[in-house]
Design brief:
By secondary structure, the protein is of the alpha+beta class. The chain has a single domain, classed as Zinc/RING finger domain, C3HC4 (zinc finger) (Herpes Virus-1, 2-Layer Sandwich), CATH 3.30.40.10. The protein is built from 3 helices and 5 strands. Strands 2-1-3-4-5 form a 5-stranded antiparallel beta sheet. The longest helix has 9 residues. The protein is globular. The N terminus is likely disordered. It binds zinc ion (2 copies). One zinc ion (ZN) binds next to helix 3. One zinc ion binds next to helix 2 and strand 2.
């Protein structure tokens, strides 16, 4: 037996690192409409986002992990709501922050994306000129 080799110290990444410990798996409520047209926290704090994600359990709209504030994944950790759907036009994929996997899901209550006249990044008037340097 090789005493110098430690088994079981696998590198913990992603959701585990971020503190998600949900045990009930996929938690989707298709009847809940999205909370609004933009990231809840960014709109409340004069922030801006790159892409939007919608919580598939409670409808919270938050900004993606490329955005400066990453409110969607913070929401997942804070509330243990692991699954989001893209809130971008023409995108219908779901993402599970717990397993870090794309998954299939049901049709959620409309609207299924932010308003088409809302720019990316958004919202209009709040995005700094050097926004590309500020992405995560
Ligand atoms: Zn945000
Ligand atoms: Zn939620």
């Amino acid at each position: 037996m090789d005493q110098g080799f430690t088994v079981g110290t696998r590198h913990r990444v992603g959701a585990a690192r971020r503190g998600l410990s949900m045990t009930n798996g996929i938690d989707i409520d298709p009847a809940i409409p999205p909370s609004g047209a933009g990231c809840v926290e960014c709109l409340a704090t004069d922030g801006w986002w790159y892409h939007l994600r919608r919580c598939a359990h409670c409808g919270h709209v938050g900004c993606c992990d490329s955005s400066p504030s990453q409110h969607a994944s913070h929401h997942a950790v804070d509330t243990q709501h692991a699954v989001v759907q893209s809130f971008e036009p023409k995108e219908d994929w779901f993402w599970n922050y717990l397993t870090e996997q794309v998954l299939e899901g049901p049709s959620l209550a409309p609207p299924n994306h932010h308003p088409l006249d809302q720019p990316t990044p958004g919202p209009a008037g709040r995005v700094p000129d050097d926004w590309e340097d500020l992405l995560n």
